[in-house]
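User: Please write out a complete single-protein record containing the residue sequence and its fold in token form, without commentary.

AI:
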Amino acid sequence: MARKRIREAETAEIDITPMMDIVFIMLIFFIVTTSFVKEAGIDVNKPEAAQAQKKPSATIFIAIRANGEIWMDKRTVDVERVSANIERLRAESPTDTIIVQADKEAKHGIVMEVMDQIKAADPSLVISIAGETK
């Protein structure tokens, strides 16, 4: 009597669980190490500077429009609220440099008031004025 052999179909499976673990670990690593830049939220027409130098990167930008509007974190703020907003943004992302982007038509007095508010938030902060280089 002939015996019939029943062969099970051999299926090749690849276990992707270790690969998925590595992908998730890399994703968490990149999320944790990313620094987020808090931009002012508007573009200003900055004056040109012949002797401008590159400054260290910062995460807090303050933009001042020609009409006197002050922008931080993509929204307008009053000049009295600049220091409170700086403290809030520094709590989220610590930095020691604040970049002020003032329109070349902005009034000097408003720029000085903003700089006073920055120093009121923390006198050790470095204020950098952004200008266009030639």
Observations:
- The radius of gyration is 27 Å.
